[in-house]
Write a structure and sequence with these properties.
seven-stranded parallel sheet, 343 residues, alpha/beta
């Protein structure tokens, strides 16, 4: 199906665009009253994500309401450990929790490489429905968590300020850590390929906890697995978003990802010097700017665009949009990107 708006894909490939494309991480979610209405019709987040028709509906809502240049499938990075044999719960206002965690070789041995058709068909079905209903209006983004970030949750059992249990395993049993990371990586490759077969036009890998590793640890326990994913996925453009990974940009630039995401603490001009001109950069407005008034949002958006320059940029926030932000303020941001980036 030919896309009516292919700005995102052209920007990712480094092709000429009429203006900077814009979308938001976590755009399909709690900022929208329309989402909350759908969410209230089911038992919670997990049921919503596992009901393809509803997942497709909330995926498309930001395209209709916010006028973004891409949809991103409504799901969660933690579907991978569940498909590997480690189920999770989503606790309201607290986040994910794993009743069981990975502690030993026996636990790792029990983990299977995910059978996507058996365990994750609800995601691919949601992608198929979304693609049909979008009817080529904008591209659809698929995604997965990076192996290190998934590892961190599987060992720690929940979110954490330090992920000390997960990091301890890297130091105390590096061989076992690599075994688990390999299984996660193989599962992730199969999952992303299934998303692409179902209709995803671009995929993004989220390394949410990249910044808690030292540079040496990141090079040993993250980069090789990110490389394996990038090398295996050749069908569509790929984005890597490694939050807080300030030391790793030179390493990331050597991997076969067309786009590198930046959080709001990163200077686009400095990153550009490190990664060179053959990568697209994505980001990176501080989400908290969207609490401000319309004029402040517009000023900061214009400044952000100036810092990235006019070539190879996809506008986004530096992290997911926060649930209590006014949707009208999100619209101000999107409108400002479109206005200030016209070429």
């Amino acid at each position: 199906m030919e896309l009516k708006n292919d700005l995102l894909l052209r920007a990712a490939k480094g092709e000429k665009v009429e203006r900077t494309p814009v979308w938001l991480m976590r755009q399909a979610g709690r900022i929208l009253p329309e989402y909350r209405k759908v969410r209230a019709s089911v038992s919670g987040f997990i049921e919503l994500a596992q009901t393809p028709e509803l997942a497709a509906e909330v995926t498309i809502q930001p395209v209709d309401i916010l006028d973004v240049d891409a949809a991103i499938i409504f799901s969660d990075i933690l579907v991978i450990p569940e498909a590997m044999g480690l189920p999770y719960e989503m606790i309201e206002k607290k986040g994910p929790r794993f009743p069981e965690t990975i502690k030993s070789k026996a636990d790792v041995d029990k983990m299977r490489v995910a059978d996507v058709e058996e365990s994750l068909s609800y995601v691919t079905k949601a992608i198929e429905i979304t693609k049909k209903e979008l009817n080529g209006r904008v591209p659809l983004i698929g995604f997965a968590g990076a192996p290190w970030t998934i590892f961190a949750y599987m060992v720690e059992g929940s979110g954490s300020k330090t992920f000390s249990k997960a990091k301890a395993m890297l130091y105390t049993d590096p061989e076992l850590s690599h075994q688990l990371l390999s299984k996660i990586t193989d599962s992730t490759i199969a999952y992303l390929k299934a998303q692409i077969s179902a209709g995803a036009d671009l995929v993004q890998v989220f390394d949410s906890w990249a910044g808690i590793l030292s540079h040496d640890q990141y090079k040993e326990f993250a980069i090789p697995y990110l490389k394996k994913i990038a090398d295996a996925i050749q069908e569509v453009p790929k984005t890597i978003f490694a939050k807080d990974a300030h030391a790793a940009f030179a390493d990331l630039s050597k991997l076969d990802y067309q786009t590198i995401g930046l959080d709001w603490t990163m200077n686009p001009r400095e990153v550009r010097k490190i990664v060179g001109s053959n990568k697209t950069l994505q980001g990176n407005l501080d989400p908290c700017v969207l609490y401000a008034d319309k004029n402040t949002i517009r000023v900061h958006t214009r400044n952000m665009l100036q810092h990235f320059g006019t070539e190879r940029h996809i506008a986004n926030l530096g992290h997911g949009v926060y649930p209590d932000i006014n949707p009208d303020h999100v619209k101000y941001f999107i409108e400002a990107v479109k206005e200030y980036s016209q070429k």
